[in-house]
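User: Batch of two.

Assistant: Item 1 of 2:
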Amino acid sequence: MGLFDSIKNTFSKSEPAADVTTAPSQLLREAGLDSSGLKFTFGNAEITVKGNIASEADRQKILDVLSGIPGINSVQDEMSVSAPAPAVEPASTAEPPEPKKPVEPAASGEGEARTYTVVSGDTLWKIAERMYGNGSQYMKIFEANTDLLENPDRIFPGQKLVIPEP
C-alpha cells in the first residue's frame, strides 16, 4: 500500500470492498448447468475448462458464464460433446431390463418419504432432475441427508439417500 492509499484510507469513511471469490462450478450450477464432469485450471487471467458435456448448447452457456467472471480475460475450451447412446430395442427373447436407479419407499412411518440408492455416475443434480424435474433442487436432497453427506459434490455408489417430497 502506498502513502497516498494510506492517507485515503485514513480519511475515507467507506470500508474497502471484500474480495469474494466464487468457484466456477458453483457459478455454473447457479446458471442451471451441470458442472460435475468438468475440470478447471487457472492461468494468468485465463481459465481452461476440460471434460464431457451433453450438447453444443451447453458448451456455449458454459463459455458465456466463465467469460463473465471478473478478472478472466480468456477461456480455453477443451470440452468434448458426449455422443448420445444409440437406441437399442431389446430382443424378444431377452429378459426385460432391470431398473438402473432404484427408488424405494422409506421403511420409516413418516409418510411419503422415498429413498434412492446412488449408482456410479450419479450426482445430486442428476438425481434432483430425475426426482423433481429440476436439477437446481439438489440442495433439498443434500439437506435431507446431512447425516450421511458432508459435501453435495461427494456422493458414492451404494449410498441410500432420503428423497424429500418436492
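Item 2 of 2:
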Amino acid sequence: MEKNKNNPQNNNPPVNEPIDGSTGSPLKEIEEKLIKCEKEKEEYLNGWKRAKADSINQQKDELKRMEEIMKFANADIIKDLLLVLDSFELSLLATKDPEAKNSSTSSLREGIEIIYSQLEKILNKQGLEKIKALGEKFDPALHEAMLQEESDKESGTILEEMVKGWKLNGKVIRPTKVRIAK
C-alpha cells in the first residue's frame, strides 16, 4: 500500500527530504550543525581557558603587590627608631674623650656601644642599611646637600656626613644630609 504525502497519519518527513524545508541533504545539514557546534565549543573552551589564566595572573600580581606592601609596612616604625639610633650615636661621640680615664665613663661608653650595636643589627635584619656618603660623589637620589663649600676636592665630593642616610630593602627612606665641595 502506497502512502500519500498528504496523508495526515504520515507525520515523519521522507528520509531523503531536508528537515527544515531546504533543498540540501539532511545528513549534510546535521554535519554542518555539528561542525558549527564544535567551533562554538572550541571558542567557549578557549575563552574559559583565557579567563582562568587571567584570573591566575591577577592572583599572582595581587600576591606580589601584598609582598611589596609587607616589605615596607614597618617603614614608619623604623624611621622612628632611627631617631633613637641617632641619639645613641651622639652619646657615643660625647663620651669619646681620650683624656677621660674614669671607669664610669668608660663603662657607660661600652654599654652605649653594645646597645647601639644591638639596635643596628635588629634594624639591619629588617632590611635597613646605611647609605655610604663620605668621600663619595653627591647623588641627589641618596644625599641631601645641606652646605656647599670651597675645597681642594673635586666638585660634588661629599666632605662631611651631617646626618646618616638609610635605605630600607633598597629604597631610600632618609637621604644622607651632607656637606659637599664646590
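DSSP finds three helices and six strands in the chain.
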